[in-house]
C-alpha cells in the first residue's frame, strides 16, 4: 500500500446543507493527496470562550441539561463568540450571564479546537479570579445552576461522570495538574 504525506485537500465543490443560529453545515468535495476525490462533512462555528472561574480555591461550574447528550452536565462557564467580538470581552460577558460574577483578574490560558476532524470551533480559555457577585443573567433559553466545588469535589465529579466535557476537563487539568492528570 502506498502512503501519502498529509497535505492540503483543495475544495472542488462546497454545498451548504444548513445554516442556523450557531452553526453552518457543509459538504465539501475535495482532491485527496493521491489525486482521487473525497467528501468531507464540515461544521463551521463562530468560536467560543470558556472560563476557569476561581473563588476561594473553588471552581465555579454550571449545571445544565444538554440536549445532544440527553443528560445534565457540569461545566465551566462558556459561550459562543458574537461576530467580531473580542474573546476577553466575550469571556467577561459569559461569566456574568451564566454565574452572576465579575472578576478583577483575567489571564488567557490557551486556545484549542474541540473536534478538528469535522468542526472548526475554537475555544479561548481564560482564568478569572477576584470574583464579585452582581446578578446572574442567563440567556432566555438557558436554565442552569451555579456550584462552587473544591478540588476534591471536582475530582469526585469527574470520577462519577458529572464532569464529562473536554473544555472543563482541560481547565481542571490546568488548575490542578497533579490531581486531574491522574484521573481515569
Automatic annotation (TrEMBL):
Alphabetized Gene3D superfamilies for the sequence: Nucleoside Triphosphate Pyrophosphohydrolase (3.90.79.10)
GO cellular component assignments: cytosol
UniProt keyword Transferase present: no
InterPro entries: Nudix_hydrolase, NUDIX_hydrolase-like_dom_sf, NUDIX_hydrolase_CS, NUDIX_hydrolase_dom
GO BP: nucleoside phosphate metabolic process; ribose phosphate metabolic process
Cofactor(s) needed by this chain: Mg(2+)
Gene Ontology MF terms in the entry: pyrophosphatase activity
Record flagged with keyword Hydrolase: yes
Keywords in alphabetical order: Hydrolase
Domain of life: Bacteria
Domain Nudix hydrolase: 43-171
Pfam families: NUDIX (PF00293)
PANTHER family: NUDIX HYDROLASE DOMAIN-CONTAINING PROTEIN, UDP/ADP-SUGAR PYROPHOSPHATASE
Family membership noted in the UniProt record: Belongs to the Nudix hydrolase family.
The name this protein goes by in its record: ADP-ribose pyrophosphatase
Originating species: Candidatus Carbonibacillus altaicus
Lineage: Bacteria, Bacillati, Bacillota, Bacilli, Bacillales
